[in-house]
Amino acid sequence: MQLATAHKAPAVRTEQIILFRSSGQVFAISSASVQEVRAVDGLAGSPQAINEPSLPKVRHMFRRGESNLYVVHAGLHFGLRQTPASLIFLLRKLRTALLIDGIEKMTTMTRLQALPGAFCHEERLWYRGLTVLDQSVIPVVNPAGFLTDDELFVLDAAASRLMAPEAPPAGEMDLSV
Question: pLDDT of 14-25, one tens digit each?
Answer without folding.
Answer: 999 999 999 999
